[in-house]
Design brief:
- This protein has two domains: 3-141, Nitrogenase molybdenum iron protein domain (Rossmann fold); 153-267, Rossmann fold, CATH 3.40.50.1980.
- The protein contains eleven helices and twelve strands.
- It has helices spanning 27-35, 53-58, 70-76, 90-97, 110-123, 127-144, 172-179, 197-203, 222-228, 239-243, 252-267, and strands at residues 3-5, 11-13, 22-24, 42-45, 60-61, 80-84, 102-105, 153-160, 165-166, 182-184, 207-211, 233-237.
Length: 268
């Protein structure tokens, strides 16, 4: 019997190898399952698993990422559940792990994401496909990185409003900011701290990036930021391409290049 180890160090075996009834509690990993070529094997997803659209419309939804309906999952009789340490509630995941094989991802870096993609491929009988996706993503990121010595913009990345929350150190978004060629002005803080506009002004960012998710920032929200940092460039950015760590990562490098170009043109 083959043993699998998740990214938190837990080891388990699968009753069905490869699994035939998979529940995904993580939107970015749901999309990955589709891109690995799985179809009928995936029987349950969350209400936030919006990609691919056809799965969002037709797959059984088992609640939100932090409000899992344990009874709906039980009715699906899964032989594998994919979860994430940050996105899902610990108590619910521990309860599910008492009854089903649960593979938990724990992702802070690009290497963590690539390891997850390969691991999910092996878990689901799609090892070759997982390895191919990871290789393509790794090459795409390597090709878009700023050359050594090229100047980097100082950025503040906001994920929430009322209160204002930013992505700081020890987050996957912080890693993606670095990959995209930015220095996070709040890298001296951890996780997702609350920031007031006076603190933002003191950090003196070159640019302020307002994420499209989880709070849907739009240009109508620019006003207070302009008042606090009149010299900073401001953009609404695609939050999925900064925070989703599955197969959607393949789109991120080209987006980061386009983003840098937009800032360069706007600064001229």
């Amino acid at each position: 019997m083959q043993l699998f180890t998740d990214q938190t160090g837990r080891t388990f075996s699968l009753p069905q190898d490869p699994p035939r009834r998979i529940v995904s509690l993580v939107p970015s990993q749901t999309e990955l399952l589709f891109d690995l070529g799985l179809r009928d094997e995936v029987c349950g997803i969350t209400k936030f698993c919006v990609h691919p659209p056809e799965w969002f419309q037709h797959k059984k939804r088992i609640g939100g990422t932090k409000t899992v309906d344990l009874h709906k999952i039980a009715a699906l009789r899964p032989d594998l559940i994919l979860a994430n340490k940050e996105e899902n509630e610990q108590a619910q995941i521990l309860e599910l792990a008492r009854h089903y094989p649960v593979w938990i991802s724990d992702i802070f870096s690009l290497n963590d994401a690539l390891d997850m993609i390969r691991s999910v491929g092996r878990l689901t009988g799609k090892a070759q496909e997982g390895a191919q996706w990871a290789h393509q993503i790794e090459r795409a990121f390597a090709a878009q990185r700023l050359p050594a010595g090229q100047s980097r913009r100082k950025a503040a990345y906001f994920i929430w409003r009322k209160p204002y929350l930013v992505a700081a150190a020890d987050t996957f978004i912080d890693t993606m900011l670095s990959e995209a060629g930015f220095d996070n002005v709040f890298a001296d803080r951890r996780r997702y701290p609350e920031i007031d506009l006076e603190t933002l002004a003191a950090a003196q960012p070159d640019c302020i990036l307002l994420s499209s998710e989880p709070f849907p920032f739009a240009e109508k929200h620019f006003g207070p930021f302009r008042e606090a940092c009149p010299g900073a460039q401001m953009l609404v950015v695609d939050g999925e391409l900064f925070s989703w760590y599955g197969s959607r990562l393949l789109q991120s490098p080209a987006y980061f290049q386009k983003l840098r170009k937009s800032l360069e043109l706007a600064g001229q």
